[in-house]
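User: I've been going back and forth on whether these two constructs are worth ordering. Before I decide, could you fold them both?

Assistant: Sure. I'll take them in the order you sent them. The first construct and its structure tokens:
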Amino acid sequence: MLDINTLVMFSLASILLALAPGPDNIFVLTQSMVKGSKAGVIITLGLCSGLIFHTSAVALGVAVIFQTSAVAFNLLKFVGALYLLYLAYMAFKDASKTKLDTNQPTLNPSALYKKGVFMNITNPKVSIFFLAFLPQFTNAANGHVTLQIFSLGAIFMIWAFVVFSLIALLAGKIGAWFSQTKSGEKILNRVAGSIFALLAVKLALAER
């Protein structure tokens, strides 16, 4: 069982980490501006669900593989980089054909959710980060360490969801105002595409 001091310290650390610029919250920001707040919240849910994979990897020792095996690390990161390049291509493609339309496009919640999950689990650095971060807040005297890891992972997911959802709501409002013109929609898509491409390069060049 986690003590109250640990919970408070871990929660504060989780909030600050969720606010720090990174691939996930930048992804939520750009997608919310282009597709709207609702899409951003659904993607956030997918991203946070992906954290279950990384938490489990740490609790079960799988994260050590990504830390010690160059093949496993590179395989996962290149899959993630290729996916980001695909998203960049789609954003630029949308920018080239965007037309002003006052009707909100139909969202596909399932596709958005899957996009968030895939975006998160294909970043091996999250598992390695959790491997270094979560154990710092465990204490063998407080019970089974594996259960503490899962509890900490769940708390991190909750705070990440809260922070990312707020980002989605704010970015959605900005995007809605900005996309009132045809040129505004095109600029948003081009910015999103450029950011995805940069994130792809950053992930592809990442080292353990």
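The second construct, handled the same way:
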Amino acid sequence: MTFLKEESYGTVKAFFLSSAVWFVIGPLIGFIDAVHLAAPDLLGNISWLVFGRTRPMHTGVVIFGFIGTALIGSAFYLVPTLLRTPLYSERMGKLSLWVWNLSIASGTITLSLGYSQGREYAEWVWPVDLGVLLTFLLVFYNLFRTAGGRQEKTLYVSVWYIFAALIYSFLIYFFGNAAWSPSYGAITGLPDAVLAWFYGHGVVGLFLTPLALALAYYIVPVVCRSPLYSHSLSLLGFWSILVIYTHIGTHHILQTPVPSWLKVLAITGSLGMIFPVMTVLINLWLTMRGRLGMIHADMGGKFVMAGLVWYLLTCLQGPLQSLPMVQRVTHLNNWVIAHAHMGVLGFSGTIALGGIYFILPRITGRPIFNRRWADIQYWLVLIGMAGFFMVLTAAGLIQGNGWQNGLAVYKILPEIHIYMILRASIGLLIVCGASLGLINIYLSLYGVRGKGDTSLDQQGKT
């Protein structure tokens, strides 16, 4: 089977190309969502394009298809490189990608046909859940066996984050999707809401975040040609995020009759997240101190730097909106959607793109096909993300203020209609950036030498 053949860095290449394809599909479905909100009757009543189906299709493809695929592919590069040993099995790596892609595609198609478990971020039906869990097991086993034959005895913090992400992701996915309950994918009553948001928040904080930080901890020192400022700080940030992040999901359901002690735990944990976040950012910013020019001269470094800025903004806003007084205005409106876009696309998505552009020249032996295209994609994603943040935040505050003053929903909708039009327009920037990136990544892998970054030889192949 040629698709499972042994090939140097073949697993990484396949994951990156798959991610680029999913990056086109995810925002395209999101654009359809935005069109529904701006012009509900424009697309008619096509069953597989109604908002209730395309919205979970969009979130699943972006979280798992685009970002998750890129970050797992980066892990297949980081672990062997940092441990100075070949990947245990390229065939197993490619098999894990086929299972992963088949699961995401099946989940997307079944959602379009109306089959759903009806829980946010956990809508995929049970057979798809099994495929996702199997992928986590295959990836973990492959990388664990790789680590078992390592030449480098010191485990750099990126390796810690990668293995933690795989272990936690399997557990939160198994429990969050109630994998022991094939018929429903849920438990009953209020505990199901608590479990759902244990998973819903964890899929961002314990799947995407550790893998994105693993990339940042690797790329920043290499691009800056400077050692990490503090290995001790990096491990302090690692352990604190694992301890704190697991129990803060309940801040999404403060208005429900969950136990007060759980609400207090979630709020204090959310506020406590400032500690691990600032530990990470201070460590990385001190590493790049005086070397910002080097960061922005490297395409991968530029994306990572932008992602870290979004990480700061996301994790300042998150604790703020966990406070009950703030939630009275911000909850259940577009403010939360703005926050979700910041955390998923702004932080982890931008770093995932940085990982692709940083690693590609090092596994192909030649520069990115067209550096200018990559730069255009960078600005399209950055401007698009900034636009999402401003437009959705404004719409959310209008909604929250109106509800605080007793206005009915139908009276507020005309006021935010212009923001929904702007949202759809901004979405086109992301779709265009993703399409350009797909062409660039494909040609970087399989095309002729293009107008890439000619400084690769100077940067080295570390």
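Notes on the second construct follow. Residues 2-459 form a domain with the Cytochrome C Oxidase; Chain A fold (CATH 1.20.210.10). The chain has a mean pLDDT of 93.
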